[in-house]
TrEMBL record:
Pathway: Steroid metabolism; ergosterol biosynthesis. The keyword Acetylation does not apply. Its EC number is 5.-.-.-. This is C-8 sterol isomerase. GO terms for cellular component: endoplasmic reticulum membrane. It comes from the Eukaryota. The gene is ERG2. Residues 1-18 form the signal peptide. GO terms for biological process: ergosterol biosynthetic process. Coiled coil: none annotated. Keywords: Endoplasmic reticulum, Isomerase, Membrane, Signal, Transmembrane, Transmembrane helix. Belongs to the ERG2 family. It comes from Curvularia kusanoi (Cochliobolus kusanoi). It is found in: Endoplasmic reticulum membrane. InterPro entries: ERG2_sigma1_rcpt-like.
Length: 217
């Protein structure tokens, strides 16, 4: 037991030092930019309005042309429970330093954003998202309508809500693997939906490893 703990401690120590060493070079590892994704989301809404299926196809087709080896064209929708909120996601890209998904629900949800090791850009494709971060004098919600981007900075935390149907293109850049704990916690302590957990792991793992094999960290 003591040996196992020592081993786990050593691995954690190594990973943490590796993270600190790579930190200054993170920028060079990214293939997507917030600017490109904001523009693409806004173009897609201009072209297809509230036909969200067409908006999503427009975005994915465009990204596949620009980044042919790093985009998952299979629309594999999977339930996602995290921070008390429930919705579904389609994983477009997953690697060690970035993920890009369509996340949303047709009936609304509410929860905790999670405190993450990555910056999160939430491009509202349909509907509206509300957010709240407590502070002196803050009594009104942040409102993110269709076409806007909610940037949740690395380390920040908020309460969020989608009152009705709402779908977004969510882009995270930073350290993705630690975020997976947040993505899995609700399965173990609430839903016990292991088939969904398995599918999430298979698709995320397949995309991350597929990207790694092509040199995309
Ligand atoms: C989508 O539908 C909402 C609600 O009906 C409307 O307010 C909004 O303007 C529509 N958006 C577009 C881009 O057509």
């Amino acid at each position: 037991m003591a040996r196992l703990l020592l081993f786990l401690g050593a691995i954690l120590g190594l990973l943490t030092s590796a993270m600190y060493m790579v930190e200054p070079y993170l920028e060079q590892l990214y293939i997507f930019t917030p600017r490109e994704l904001a523009q693409l989301s806004s173009d897609a809404i201009s072209a297809h309005g509230n036909d969200t299926a067409a908006v999503v196809s427009y975005i994915v087709d465009n990204l596949a042309k620009k980044h042919p080896d790093h985009v998952n064209l299979e629309e594999e929708w999977i339930f996602n429970n995290a921070g008390g909120a429930m919705g579904a996601m389609y994983i477009i890209h997953a690697s060690i330093t970035e993920y890009l998904i369509v996340f949303g629900t047709a009936i609304g949800t509410e929860g905790h954003t999670g405190r993450h090791t990555a910056d999160d850009y939430f491009h509202i494709l349909k509907g509206e998202q509300l957010a709240y971060a407590p502070g002196k004098g803050v009594y009104a919600p942040e409102v993110y309508p269709q076409g806007s981007v909610h940037h949740l900075r690395r380390g920040d935390v908020k309460q969020y809500k989608m009152d009705k149907d709402c779908f977004a293109l969510e882009y995270a850049r930073g350290w993705i693997p630690p975020m997976l704990f947040f993505g899995y916690a609700d399965t173990f302590f609430s839903t016990l939906d292991f088939p969904t957990l398995w599918r999430t792991t298979v698709v995320t793992g397949r995309e991350m490893i597929g990207n790694l094999l092509q040199g995309k960290v």
